[in-house]
Structure formats: structure tokens, C-alpha cells
Specification:
Length: about 325
């Protein structure tokens, strides 16, 4: 970026101190494209440099102060004028004055709390970013850098199976079972469908993974359903007593952890939708909510000191995380997912 004033122009650049070693991950943008961003976890320090490069050395650049901010914010697309900030940290780098040479300013935000996972949805966006600002009388110079935050979770203490009988009186009676009610994002859903009574001609059966995004409150509540996956489990007519196995691998789909009432602005929930279609194209379905969470498998030896501190900070509360498993940090802040 550049600005002009009194014949001087400059560029502002943000560089992370561990940019060469820090992992980068793909994240969907608002336009639906995938781009790579630096990955952070809750409790990690964010540090780097703000580089101010003058285009014309020895020519004066006047400013009203230079600062860098770390911001976490939620933007609801139907209310774009208002950005709801849940993290806002500021470091002043220079007082008002002038420069005649390019400058480098170091900054560090220590053990930054990042309570929610980065998310880009149909009606809402949760983002974290650094913003460097050179204040000017006429126009500020601003440079932003987005990062991605993942929230890791411990293994749920209670993870009971889901078992349910559903049907239509005197026509269809089935029993379905899923091995767990909470799955990590690389997990496998194992289950079975057992037919107790079949008096209608079923020609097709599938399981859908549905993501339901809820935004807003009160009269301004929006629900957006998105079918993430369709998995065929049967093609043809079943008979009474038949059992159909289910094995659905989650790793191949674009999933996020379950998010419940994030900053009282939005929620993201997932459902398994069992769908049966008969020969007259009538559809019978049963939805069951499941909880998804992000697992930290291995703690690398090179895990940063601040991440270790963050894991210790939450160790004492891990026993209370079952109800909000996907939105709580892990005891083991791993780096492999």
C-alpha cells in the first residue's frame, strides 16, 4: 500500500517472526475460494515486524502515530456495517512525528486468547487478523494480514451410541444405530440399519451430512442448511430382518467443529439425515444431531512454549468441556490433525 503527502510515499508490510516455520492451512474465503493462511491456536503468542518502506529516502514523512492491532471479529452479512469484536489488542509503535528513512518496528502479543475457530459461512464470517496503521491527517495507511485459528478438543468423557426406532405404523419399522454421538473431523461413522417391518417398496436409502448455520437473534434469525455429503447405503428393496452396515469416513468432507452460540451471534450444528425413497418417489427421513470436534493427535517436540502454557491453562477445566467439546482447547495442543 502507498500514500502520498508532501511528495512522499511509503509501503507498509506485516511479517510474522516465525513465518518460515509456522504451518499454513487452507481456509475458504467469502468468495468460496481456498487460500492458505498461517495457523494459530488459542494461547499462542503472535509476534512479528511492521516494515515501513519510504519510496523517496531523505524526504520527510509526517505521521500522527503508528500502531499494530490484533483483532478477532464476527461479521454478519445482513448487518455488514457492524463488526462485532471479541478480541481487540493494540500496541503503539511510534508517537506522532516524522521519518526520513525506512523503519522496522517489532511487536509481540503474548499468549493471546483466541476462543473461537475461524469460520466462513453462508451468512457469517469469524476472522482473526493483524492490522498495522500509519495515522495521517488526510488518509491513514492500513495493512491487514489474516490468520486462521483452530480450536482443539480433548476426547469426550461421555460418548454414548445413538440408537433409535422409527417408522410408519403398519408400513415400515426400522432400527438404526450409530456407534458414537461425538466424532472428530477425521473420524469414521460406524453403524447399522435393521429392518423390523417392511410393507412398502423401498428402492433407495442414503445418509446425508447436513450443516445447519444459524445466525442472528430474535426476529432476525436466519437458518441455512447445506448438504455436505450424500452417502448411499442401499440400492434395492430390503426384506424384514435385513441389516445394512454403515461406514462413513468424515476425512474427505469439508467440516468444521460444532459451534454453539458463538459470542451470542451464530451457531453451526451437524446432523445425520437418514433418507429412504420408495418406488413412488416418496421420501422418508429421520435426522439425528451429532457433535463434531477437532482432534490434536500428536504433540510435537517443537511445540512452542506458549502453546504448552495454553494447554496447561485449560487443563484444569477439561473435565467440564464435555457439553461444549468442539469450542474448548485441548489438553494436548497438538499440531497434526
Amino acid at each position: 500500500m502507498s500514500f502520498f503527502g508532501f511528495g512522499q510515499s511509503a509501503e507498509v508490510e506485516l511479517v510474522l517472526s516465525d513465518a518460515e516455520s509456522r504451518r499454513r492451512v487452507e481456509h475458504k474465503t467469502e468468495e468460496g475460494k481456498k487460500e492458505k493462511y498461517f495457523l494459530f491456536y488459542d494461547g499462542e503468542t503472535v509476534s512479528g515486524r511492521v516494515i515501513l518502506t519510504l519510496k523517496h529516502p531523505n524526504r520527510r514523512l509526517e505521521h500522527q502515530g503508528i500502531k499494530v492491532e490484533f483483532i478477532g471479529q464476527i461479521e454478519l452479512y445482513y448487518d455488514r456495517g457492524n463488526h462485532h469484536e471479541f478480541v481487540s489488542l493494540v500496541k503503539d509503535l511510534a508517537r506522532p512525528g516524522e521519518f526520513t528513512q525506512s523503519q522496522i518496528f517489532d511487536f509481540e502479543f503474548t499468549h493471546v486468547e483466541k476462543p473461537y475457530e475461524s469460520y466462513t459461512g453462508q451468512n457469517v464470517k469469524l476472522r482473526y487478523f493483524l492490522r498495522a496503521t500509519v495515522s495521517r491527517r488526510l488518509n491513514d495507511v492500513v495493512k491487514e494480514m489474516d490468520i486462521v485459528v483452530h480450536t482443539l478438543s480433548t476426547y469426550p468423557e461421555l460418548n454414548s451410541s445413538i440408537k433409535m426406532e422409527v417408522g410408519i405404523e403398519d408400513c415400515l419399522h426400522i432400527e438404526f444405530e450409530y456407534n458414537k454421538s461425538k466424532y472428530h473431523l477425521k473420524d469414521v461413522i460406524v453403524g447399522k440399519i435393521y429392518f423390523l417391518l417392511v410393507r412398502i417398496k423401498i428402492k433407495h436409502m442414503e445418509i446425508d451430512i447436513i450443516k445447519r448455520e444459524t445466525t442472528g437473534t430474535g426476529p432476525n434469525v436466519y437458518h441455512e442448511n447445506d448438504t455436505i455429503a450424500k452417502y448411499e447405503i442401499m440400492d434395492g428393496a430390503p426384506v424384514r430382518g435385513e441389516s445394512i452396515p454403515i461406514r462413513l469416513f468424515l476425512a474427505g468432507y469439508e467440516l468444521t467443529p460444532t459451534m454453539r452460540d458463538i459470542n451470542k451471534k451464530f451457531s453451526v450444528r451437524y446432523y445425520l439425515n437418514l433418507v429412504l425413497i420408495d418406488e413412488e418417489e416418496r421420501r422418508y427421513f429421520k435426522q439425528q444431531e451429532v457433535v463434531l470436534w477437532r482432534k490434536g493427535d500428536i504433540v510435537r517436540k517443537s511445540m512452542s512454549h506458549q502453546a504448552a502454557i495454553a494447554s496447561q491453562r485449560f487443563e484444569g477445566t477439561s473435565s467440564h468441556t464435555e457439553a461444549k467439546t468442539p469450542s474448548q482447547p485441548a489438553e494436548n495442543n497438538g499440531r497434526q490433525e
